[in-house]
Amino acid sequence: MTLQGTSAVVLHTHRTDLAQPPSSVLDVVTVPPQELGAGQVQVRNLFQQVIAASGDLMFETTQIPAPVFRAGEPIHGGAVGKVVESRVVGLPAGTVVQHMSGWREESILNADEALPMPEGIFPGPEYLLNQGVPAYYGMVDVVAVGVGDVVLVSGAAGGVGSMAAQIARARGAAYVIGIAGGPEKARYLLDELGLDAAIDYRNDDLDERLATLAPDGITVFFDTIGGTQFEAAIRHTAPGARFALCGNLAGQVSGGDAGYPRLDLMTALANEVQIRPFSTRHTSEQIRAWNTHYTQWYAEGRITFAHTLLDGTLQRAITAQDELLAGMHRGNVIVRLAR
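Above: the chain sequence. Below: its structure as tokens.
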């Protein structure tokens, strides 16, 4: 069966500067048709996930442990869609699946690339498009957050941070503090995510707030930002504190020396701080571990899906990528694709 061409987002040239918006290097074009082969499904995409890391993959080289996007070719990323044609037993037409070949109207997938949506748990298929895998891996496997921990999460209103903070709470942390930018996001951490405290880094003094909120020091820091927030966290550690370094958004967006925070070495030595940078490979084991706990915790009401849902075409997904890097949205950013 030969399929018609489909619209897709293509990288026409690599980004060369952090100040360059992704929309300046992306186009929506019609790509050539593909042949649906044995063991494959054709999926019409319904929701497109937008994540900060995609902006880094638009550079010719990156330190992110993932293949960069190639100039002149479609980009890829998380999406949810409905099977419209199938040559796979067990994935009939109408099945809703999650996959990593998004940023196009329709995708051709091998059977092992399409993860069926569990039935009867989530209000909508977009609930699969979260960034819980790195959040869970960092919080659980890297720093083993648990009962009694005093936890600090930077970028707590973002896709990864919002999940990491809730995972800490679900695992029995004694106190969870989130850092976000602006009073609206700070209220969001308290009112919607249910964290114990919030720090607005734009208007609050980090040191003063941490001294008040965690007078005996933090025991776990989950960092997606780096920069001055990492420096402040070091100054307010408890003995044996564990740091899970997940991201460097300050350096990814701001540039300059924001990606090179100073390490208060004497404090780190005196408190025997364990600094553990990590990369998430999204292995089948990592995905399975997260999905198992996500479905359970969501069903029990112990975790919510923090997200921003936008409506539009693939072009809207492109502008949403710009907006995400500019800090305009909170939680996991998803575009519901219009027809």
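The mean pLDDT is 95.
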